[in-house]
Amino acid sequence: MTSRQARNEVLETAPTSADAASPAVPVPESDELPPYLESALASLISEWHDPSFTVTPELDSVTAARHFATRTLGGWDMGALADDVGLVVTELVTNALRHSLPPCPKAAERTSIRLRLLRQYSWVLCGIMDAASSAPMRREPDFVAETGRGLHLVDSFSARWGWRGLAPGGKVVWALFHVPA
After folding, report:
1. What pLDDT does residue 82 have?
2. Contact 3/62 with Cβ under 8 angstroms?
3. Averaged over 160-168, what is the pLDDT?
4. Is the Cβ–Cβ distance between 165 and 146 less than 8 Å?
5. Region 131-139: what's the mean pLDDT?
6. Which of 22, 32, 74, 113 gives a 20 to 30 Å CA spacing to 51?
7. Do residues 44 and 174 lie in contact, with contact meaning Cβ atoms separated by under 8 Å?
8. Beta-ladder partners of 53
9. Which domains are seen in the chain, by residue range?
10. Residue 13 has pLDDT above 60, yes or no
11. Range name among 47-56, 98-107, 147-156 with the lowest pLDDT average
12. Contact yes or no for 57/101 (Cβ under 8 A)
């Protein structure tokens, strides 16, 4: 998916007839994670986490988020992950912009979507936090529809992914990437 396609998806949120043909299925919330991943996820969602990027409801925010992620990986000497992480960031930020922002543009300006990255040894954890508490919805791939394949791409390009609700509201959708040997 190109940044232009991602920007267009953010702007075109009305479902098409093809979208209606493939029912969405909620993804179960992540639980029973291995201890290392549970600890990393807790660190990722903590208030004092760096590096962090705030996504704004603007046309270029998807591209800016992807560039932030790839620059951060380059600084960590993990450039081998840049393509996979960049693609997943594009999909997750696009989903957050499409599904978590309120319909009122003024309210959307005050809603925060945050991208955070956490590096541990030979892996990177990426998280997108937004204000919506609803589960991500996966659709069966429909090769005619213009949308609906994002979570399948996240599943394909990350080692593991999921989501978790946040208190007092909102959620984090996360993806784990292993550095190639």
Report:
1. 96
2. yes
3. 92
4. no
5. 84
6. 32
7. yes
8. 115
9. 39-178 (3.30.565.10)
10. no
11. 98-107
12. yes
Residue type, 143: F
What is the C-alpha separation between 175 and 157, in angstroms, rounded?
A: 9
Look-up of token digits 């791409």? 153
Whether residue 111 contacts residue 162, with contact meaning beta carbons closer than 8 Å, is answered with no
Residue with tokens 């936090």: 129
Task: Give the pLDDT confidence score for residue 159 in this predicted structure.
Answer: 95
**Structure-block tokens of residue 85:** 């992480």
Q: How far apart are CA 42 and CA 34, in angstroms?
A: 12
Q: In this predicted structure, which of 30-34, 40-44, 64-68, 127-131 has the lowest mean pLDDT?
A: 30-34
d(CA 70, CA 151): 20
Distance CA 130, CA 34 (A): 24
* Residue 116, beta-bridge partner list: 52, 127
Task: Enter the tokens of residue 104.
Answer: 């009122």
In the predicted model, is pLDDT for residue 133 greater than 80? Answer: yes
Structure tokens at 141: 């791939």
The mean predicted confidence, pLDDT, of the chain is: 80
DSSP state letters, 107-134: HHHH--EEEEEEEETTEEEEEEEES--S
Question: Per-residue pLDDT for 105 more than 80?
Answer: no
Per-position DSSP letters for 35-74, written without gaps between them: HHHHHHHHHHTSTT-SSEEEEPSSTTHHHHHHHHHHHHHH
